[in-house]
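Example 424, ligand EPZ.
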Amino acid sequence: MDKLIVHGGHKLSGSVNISGAKNASLPILAAALLTEEDVIIRRVPDVSDTNYMIQILSALGAEVERSSGTVRVNSANITHDAPYELVRKMRASICVMGPLLARLGKARVSLPGGCVIGDRPVDLHLKGLKAIGTEIDMEGGNMDMTTPNGLTGAEVDLRGKNGPTVLGTDNLMMAAVLAKGTTVIESAAAEPEVVDLANFLIGMGAKISGAGTSRITIEGVEKLHGTEHTIIPDRIEAGTFMVAGAMAAGEEGITLHRICKEHLVPVTEKLIEAGHQVQFNDAGTSVTVAPGKHPQGAKIITAPHPGFPTDMQAQFSSLFAVTKGISVIEDTIFPQRFMHCAEMSRMGANIKVDNGTAVIEGVEKLSAAPVMASDLRASAALVLSALTAEGSTEINRLYHIDRGYEHIDEKLLTLGARLERVRE
Ligand code: EPZ
């Protein structure tokens, strides 16, 4: 139950490296189950979510070795039963379903429970897996899955009420790579993390085309082999630090290395629209962000990639809370994902949340208060607010931020922030 004490008002400067993407690492670690040969994955961030996934792979019988950011996995001898004790800790564990079904023809995974960011059913995952021949028995909170006639390719539309599903697309793609015949996923998610998974699978010998578009075609193959892969940069971690630069950097700004410009287009456009300075190097692998001279509010409507990512809306609410004028944030993917707003109001922010939309009237400055993190991105937003607040803010339940940000306190200290982690 660590907490973070952030002493606000210190200008940031200098540079940091961005880590590998958590949301690419999780499905790619699960996909290692698809072959009995060695798989080497580089730039896996040291965050609790990747550690959970590694524990799940080990519990399924895979051999897993980790040395700093490199993970070796060998899944020669695995079972199909993912333990509830581990799966309940992380929703993304659900992406072992596809690989287990493809490799073993069966899987036993517990149904994910509730989530603070909102309603997160798995009906689209099940729709996709059923369409290619999976039978599913729900019992005791578990999904018992079998493929009595093996998996056979089919055409499936994965559009849901809030658009495509990222992990649902991943699960079906991973199940279809060893199925008989061809699978076509319509309304597929096109996030960069889906493309990174597809590239990893292609490296193992899979036949996939169209990743990054809304139509993905997978031609099943007999067997997959080992491979080596380097995870893409984490665009959400990069986006979070870009907002830190706009909110708290000195005139020189802060520089982030090991980023991918192409993945940051919606965040970059919104920061520039809000009056801040964003400068990439020619290669598009580093970016410098500094506060603008005339910052202004803006309107954000989240959408599936390449739209504005829901995983960045909380961080922008921190920026807009101290930006003169009215800003509006509508989250169309997780309409209830505004837990951070009540905590920021405790620091003096003026935010009204109603029906999936936050209306933010900027104030001069926030003031420090003890606040509670509720989920990963909400905790990042509280850290950003604390960086510019008057006084020392205490952020509790830090374990939320450790789920997806690698050593965030050390990186902020490198940039000149004043803070300390307090172990409890
Ligand atoms: C992924 O979650 C990310 N997680 C989330 O990031 C991210 O917020 C989300 O995609 C959207 O971009 C990982 O990659 C590990 P979805 P996922 O299925 O795949 C509805 C973070 O902060 N839906 O794309 O679980 C769902 O309720 C995390 O790093 C169904 O209706 O999200 C939501 O409204 C949080 N039925 C929408 O689709 C389904 O079967 C998109 O969810 C599945 C989803």
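Summary: The first strand starts at residue 3 and ends at 7.
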